[in-house]
Amino acid sequence: MTSESYTLAGVDDEGESLDLLIARARAGEESAFEEILARFESKALGIARNLGAGDQDAEDIAQESFLRLFRHIGSYRGGRRFTAYFFRIVVNVTRDHFRKAAAERQIVLVSGSAARDDSLSSQGPSAAHDLEVRQRTRAALMQLTLREREIVILKDMQGLSVWEISRILRLDPITVRRHAMRARIRLRDLLGR
After folding, report:
1. Residue 152 burial by CB count (10 A; 0-12/13-18/19+): exposed, middle or buried?
2. Where along the chain do its domains lie?
3. Whole-Å CA distances, 156 to 2, 9, 119, 159
4. CB atoms inside a 10 Å sphere around CB 45
5. What would the DSSP string read from start to end of 63-94?
6. Quick one: angle between helices 82-103 and 30-50, nearest 10?
7. pLDDT digits (tens, 9 = 90+) for 36-58
8. How far apart are CA 44 and CA 94, in angstroms?
9. pLDDT tens across 57-86, in order?
């Protein structure tokens, strides 16, 4: 897997083509799995990174998420959004990763490398400013609780509804709204906006 940008695009259109792709994947068609990987790899990496994983850990998390998806694609019941189903897998794999890392006392909270920082800052003031904004935002996100980060990433960066997030995180929608509001207030204070 390759490293992608930290920005997260909106959720893909999940029309009939994705439903057909999933049906082909459920039938064991390898090219369908590859297409799903191509469509959702950057989203999986972005979620893992924004929850606090470093680049290599995010790649491992994304890879494990796809392995779980492909192992259990038969349990996906159509009728609910596939992205919500897949994002739940990514969030759960990320949680498992952090639990394992905490047990080993090797939690990676800050991602990025000096080489990438240098290459972006050498591209001019705009790229350097964008990098600074991303770093400040990431640092502010890391000061939120894991639950608040999950909700902010799924709601504000991935564009999922409160109802979808409540299903992914197995929380009451009111709890999701409360955490989202608290997280936004904390982020506004941390970012000085």
Report:
1. buried
2. 9-111
3. 24, 11, 28, 5
4. 26
5. HHHHHHHHHSGGGPPTTS-HHHHHHHHHHHHH
6. 60
7. 999 999 999 999 998 888 888 99
8. 10
9. 999 999 999 999 998 888 887 766 888 889
Q: How far apart are CA 129 and CA 120, in angstroms?
A: 9
CA atoms of 74 and 22, how far apart (whole Å)? 9
3-state secondary structure (DSSP) of residue 28? coil
Tokens, residue 147: 């639950």
Q: Which residues, other chains included, contact 39 with Cβ-Cβ below 8 Å and sequence gap of 6+?
A: 12, 18
Per the structure block, which two tokens stand in for 39?
A: 């469509």
Write the class of the CATH domain 9-111.
Answer: mainly alpha
Tokens matching residue 66: 């796809």
Distance CA 131, CA 127 (A): 6
Rounded Cα–Cα distance for residues 24 and 124 (Å)? 46
Residue-wise burial string across 163-173, b where 16 or more C-beta atoms lie within 10 A, e elsewhere: ebbbbbbebee
Which residue's structure tokens are 């090797």? 106
The alpha carbon torsion through 161, 130, 7, 95 (nearest 10 deg) reads: -80
- Give 110's contacts (C-beta < 8 A, 6+ positions apart): 54, 138, 142
